[in-house]
Amino acid sequence: MPRRTPRSTPARLRTPGRFPGFLKTASVCALIAGLLSPITQVAAAAEVTAANDYCGGQCSDILPPGENGNATLAQILLNQAFGTQPEHAEDQLGPYANLAKGYPTLTNATINTFFNDASFGVASDQVASTLSPAGRSDVTIVRDKKTGVPHITGTTRYGTEFGAGYAAAQDRLWLMDVFRHVGRGQLTAFAGGDPSNQGLEQQFWRNAPYTEADLQAQIDNAVAKNGTRGQQALADANAYLAGINAYIDASDSGRYFPGEYVLTGHKDSVTNAGTIDRFKITDLVALASVIGALFGSGGGGEVNNAVSLLAAQEKYGVQQGTQVWEAFRERNDPEAVLTVHNGQSFPYAAKPATPQGEALPDTGSVAAQPLVYDATGTGGDATASATSATATATALSSARRGMSNALVVSGQATASGHPIAVFGPQTGYFAPQLLMLQEIQGPGISARGASFAGLSMYVELGRGQDYAWSATTSGQDIIDSYAVELCQDDYHYLYHGTCTAMDVVEQKNAWKPTTADATAAGSYTMRVYRTKYGPVEYRATVGGKKVAYTTLRSSYMHEADSIIGFQMLNDPDYVKSPQTFQSAVQHINYTFNWFYADSTHTAYYNSGDNPVRASGVDAEFPVWAQAAYEWKNWVPATNTADYTPASAHPNSIDQDYYISWNNKQAKDYSTASWGDGSVHRGNLLEDRVKKLVAAGGVTRASLTKAMADAALADLRAEDVLPDLLKVVNSSTVTDSTAAAAVTKLQAWLTAGGKRTETTAGSKTYADADAVRILDAWWPLLVKAEFEPGLGTGLYTALTANLPIDETPSAAHGPTGAHAGSSFQFGWWSYVDKDIRAVLGETVQGALTQKYCGGGTLTGCRDILISTLKEAAGRTAAQVYPGDTLCAAGNQWCADSIVQRTLGGIKHGNISWQNRPTFQQVVEFTAHR
């Protein structure tokens, strides 16, 4: 059968994940008989030899569930009825899952039991198929037998990119189509009105409400300012689009297009009536806006920060309240784990000595700007309203969840003398995956790795001929909030003294039930009010004056700019050293930490267009929309300004090791999100890698084992529970319930504090009771520890800045529950610092007072024991209440990872791991 097609939307999207009851086995069988296509592609036994490969067979990668994200209607129906999988749809899921129990005995020789061989090319006896897309003579797409990954080799640049587009559509057409509609705010009209679809389009369109003219202008600007490389990027994009559209035409006429188009009403399975819209260049910008918002836009949250600061000042007074707030904010905590740990300082977004221009709202006056208007049917019911509220909170938060880790060790500490890296992005789990694997070889391009579907004209994370690179989300603040003073009415504002009308951008969506989504008919209009300072996000008063708070992001109207950096990373004639690598990623305007390794060197660079703020402006809070407080040399027509120079960004070459798990980058470099304190999930990597480096002789296997071990660790158990038990055990525990709980927790700690199965496939945790007790205890103890001292108002406000917990079973961020990524945001640092202070231990960057039990050891112990007793009495069904996948009380299932259906193919859940979705293990043996 020809390769088929992909599915639907991220995070909370739902398309054909479930089908109505009439699609039962009998009817499925009848339908399948008429839908199986007789067309086949002929496998050619031809060996593909790519450019020089200097990795010596020591480059590996993995990306679950599988490369093939295409499924015809017949394949979808077979999957729904019998669980059968299209070829290569989930053949990377098993190896990925098996590392959770297989890592303790891992050796260099067995790495590719759990990863793919990421060498360039395909051996002749491993070629599954060879295709010249659209009959072109200047490009071939070879797919290997094991994983079906496309290896694209072109003799011309145009042909190479045409092949990349064709292969992308072969593997992810439906997904690409879904995401271009998300970026345009048109998902519900395209895929159905399910509440998850409503929430998704609202979340992203609120922050990137672009018109077609806006999208085209971003392309024109990116091309114009980048000279020859800009022209090449435009040519590459057009060739890539031609490849996508050629596959659309071929699959449509051959009737092997994605079955989701039938299930959502876009195509007729009998007559083939209907259309699949061809892609155009502005679709790529719409796609990029979604990916950038998900993973590369640090900042925001200034209004929420102001609300919690005012709550602190209301309770304690201005001076003391500000000190209390700053202690919880942990802008530059001396105990925070750092990626650049050699003492270098990179000051950014620090607290000014005398803040200027702050526009703090009047207490109780803040209200989020509505996005949805004129709702009808299921667009305006109670479920829709709740969905909109959640989407708004997520869009306006400074927290960017689930975003990647990296472990990179210098050759000085390895057994071979060559650097080793284990790294990758943590992008959630979807079916098909947001990323896709590919190898591209052609004039000026030589790389293998992962790219976001629909943006795969270049490899975005992967390896070149003699180097590899990856990224983690960094989160430094490139977003500011401005208070625009209103004039005339609520839709005019003062700009440099002139009353100016806000621009209004609207997107009207309507939907009706389909086979894929039975949501009843509904509609609404999304309406955004835009100012020169960005879209309006809140309404409030400041000193009695009516204002609108806007959000200005340095990458706003610049979603296409980063294409040049990715083009450079794929160019073997450009990247030849750590310095040229750093130069390449300096052209990426999104907020990422970038890591590099070749056979001799390692490197790190923090990317993003960091605006130069006016003197005295505090990036934490809204400021007045006045010339004195604007970014330096800001031009509103193009949203350009002065940005901090490359030397001011955290960067390093050949540090002994680097770790990153979205932690603080370097000394004095503040990030927008809260939680960079004494306990961070980055510590799980730091502690393990530091020990490996100190011992020396690091291997690919030992570094992978360190990552895998951290991936099963409960951060609270490893870094906070020991001190909690010190307090509890400071006197003999006489209560039998509490004593039994302490015994179980201590035994779990002794066993390593992991959330891991008893044996592979048991679907039962070792130390299950201890895990349940801690999951139940944590929210109880945090509330009992801090709310009495802070007061309910301030405590609640601070939890809006930083949630208290993020267990594997929690629903969080754009990826919802069952997302793998855990322990990124929580109150573990606060608990750690407070408990250590109560114990009389030295605390750097301490809170301004002791909270637990009023600051006494006895009082703290009483609180911990009382909450521990309550937690121990909570049943598994209470702690893990169940959802559409898991029965109440099923602890393993509650934690488990699910490939969230973005289309018609479903996969089974796997045991929890807290690790990158796409991951590389690399050790280059030579250099050009």
Topology:
Elements: H1 25-35, E1 59-62, H2 73-82, H3 93-102, E2 116-117, E3 127-131, E4 139-144, E5 150-154, H4 157-183, H5 187-191, H6 195-207, H7 212-224, H8 227-254, H9 260-263, H10 281-295, H11 302-316, H12 318-329, E6 345-348, E7 367-368, E8 372-377, H13 382-396, E9 405-409, E10 420-424, E11 430-431, E12 435-442, E13 445-452, E14 461-463, E15 467-473, E16 479-487, E17 489-495, E18 498-501, E19 503-511, E20 522-531, E21 534-542, E22 545-553, H14 563-569, H15 578-585, E23 592-598, E24 602-606, E25 623-624, E26 651-653, E27 657-660, E28 667-669, H16 682-695, H17 700-711, H18 715-719, H19 721-728, H20 736-750, H21 768-790, H22 792-801, H23 828-838, H24 857-872, H25 876-879, H26 891-895, E29 900-901, E30 919-922
Parallel strand pairs: 5-12, 6-28, 11-29, 16-25
Antiparallel strand pairs: 1-2, 1-30, 3-4, 4-5, 7-21, 8-20, 9-10, 9-27, 10-30, 12-13, 13-14, 14-15, 15-23, 16-17, 16-22, 17-18, 19-20, 20-21, 21-22, 23-24, 24-26
Summarize the structure.
This protein is α+β, with helices and mostly antiparallel strands and 928 residues long. 34% of the residues lie in helices and 17% in strands. The strands form 5 sheets. A 10-stranded mixed beta sheet has the order 3-4-5-12-13-14-15-23-24-26, covered by helices on one side. Strands 7, 8, 16, 17, 18, 19, 20, 21, 22 and 25 form a 10-stranded mixed beta sheet that branches. Strands 2-1-30-10-9-27 form a 6-stranded antiparallel beta sheet, with helices on one face.
Can you characterise this structure?
This protein is of the alpha+beta class. The chain has 26 helices and 30 strands. The strands form 5 sheets. A 10-stranded mixed beta sheet has the order 3-4-5-12-13-14-15-23-24-26, covered by helices on one side. Strands 7, 8, 16, 17, 18, 19, 20, 21, 22 and 25 form a 10-stranded mixed beta sheet that branches. Strands 2-1-30-10-9-27 form a 6-stranded antiparallel beta sheet, covered by helices on one side. A hairpin with a 2-residue loop joins strand 20 (522-531) and strand 21 (534-542). 60% of the residues are buried. The model is unreliable at 1-50 (pLDDT under 50).
